[in-house]
Fold this protein.
Amino acid sequence: MEKLVITGGRRLNGEVFISGAKNAAVAIIPAAIMADGVCVIDNLPGIEDVASLSSTLNKMGAVCEYIDKHTLKVDSTGDITNCAAFEEVKKIRASYYLLGALLGRYKKAEVALPGGCNFGTRPIDLHLKGFRLLGADVEVTNGIVKVKAERLHGAQIYMDQVSVGATINIMLAASMAEGTTIIENCAKEPHVVDTANFLNMMGANIKGAGTDIIRIKGVEKLHGAEYTIIPDQIEAGTYMIAAAIAGGDVTVRNIIPKHMDSLTAKLAEMGAAIEKQDDSIRVMANGRLHCANIKTMSYPGFPTDLQPQMTALLSVCDGISVVTENVWDNRYQYVAELKQLGAKITVESRVAMIEGVQKLTGARVAATDLRAGAAMVIAGLSAEGTTEIDNIRYIDRGYEDIENKLSALGADIKRVEI
Ligand code: EPZ
């Protein structure tokens, strides 16, 4: 077991290079088994979820090997089992993309229900509704989702709720259905677009990703492709918020600034100085920032995956801030940990009210999920004294090399065996 130990109060200066997008990687790696060929996926983040998915694909009969730390070769020309019901699968929520990928290619799949973070219910009813509309029989027994179809046919699918996972999963299956599928009220996140681009490189015919309506003309086969995934907007946002809370001058490199617009605007509103360049954003902050109100929305709104990190920053801003979590029904479990550091926050259902305090004080806290762990790191950078963070396996699921990237910026942060 390990913990992170942070001594707060150090300003951050310099540049940090952002890794590939976790939520693109965990969709594109399963999609690679749809190819009757070899895919090479580059710019993958060095994180647990990628390693876990690669191991899962190997157990299913694909041959996955790392060409280098960030490049994975996936050979799916052999016999791939359409059953993924072993322990590894339950470790991450994104395993559910195996359903869409296997249903698309083999018209059959059995996948264990996903695990993932523990903030509220995380149903997959919209995924299964889409599969049924494409012609699949769906049943869920003993925690295993079983889908199969004589043939998949195009369909008109209106998403009851904007869902990243369901949009991507239905897109996977529909890309090899007979005929045209139209998905309406789609998620528009950058990783939805990235997955569509990857599928098109494999020979799919997908138009409109990134808008409310995606049109898919099914094809019979998909071939191998080489693809470089997009940078991680949430990792980038986490470092931008870290610069804002610690003070200093940090340039976040290897990003797509457009993906950061909702956060960039909010940090500027709070008093940080922001400079956008082609593939980087510079964040300069000195002293306390002003309070602000945040409403999380699907893209291009303020991302729910930056809500915990932003709440940590708001806890030391001047004035009273209000955060409304519109995506998940229980994403404030980390607030109890922030309060141990001295934050003044009250939560009522989906709304958190944050009264900015002069300073936080270091304490021993725990990561309750991936982004909550990132929020503890951000709070620790600002807290007086030492902050110890347990359960950092959550953080390692989504952040590559977090302690070295922050140390290089001047933070006093160490990973310690316990
Ligand atoms: C993806 O989760 C991300 N995970 C999450 O990031 C992110 O918080 C979320 O999208 C929203 O942006 C991955 O991409 C692996 P949704 P996903 O389907 O796809 C409801 C992180 O930290 N819903 O967009 O599971 C659902 O309950 C993780 O990187 C249904 O009701 O999210 C939620 O309220 C945490 N039925 C809302 O829709 C369904 O069938 C949005 O969920 C599916 C979703």
